[in-house]
């Protein structure tokens, strides 16, 4: 029976950050973000999530450690923001 290695939470966080940045339109012009009645404010949500990602990137670059709970919380936040953006027609409903 082979031993499984412990998952590398820091690497998983780097991958999660890259996935979030790749799936959400952080560079979308304000005119497209705010184009009518919104359910939630896409601009504010993207600004908030971008700030969280920047904080985590800085933490990782400084040699900080990530816990599974940190990964779960960031993934949950990313899913919530994605759901609001999908409801506003800014991303696909995947």
Order of helices and strands: HHHH
Number of strands: 0
Amino-to-carboxy terminus distance: 38 Å
Overall mean pLDDT stands at 90
- If you compute it from the alpha carbons, what radius of gyration comes out, rounded to the nearest whole angstrom? 16 Å
- Portion of residues within helices: 55-70%
Low-confidence stretches: none
Main β-sheet, in a few words? none
> How would you describe the shape?
elongated
Keywords:
94 residues, mainly alpha, 4 helices, 63% helix
Could you explain how this protein is built, in words?
This protein is mostly helical. It has a domain at 13-19 and 40-94. The protein contains 4 helices and no strands. It is elongated, with a radius of gyration of 16 Å. The termini are far apart. The relative contact order is 0.20.
SSE map:
Blueprint: H1 9-23, H2 30-33, H3 42-61, H4 68-87
What's the gist of this structure?
With 94 residues, the chain is mostly helical.
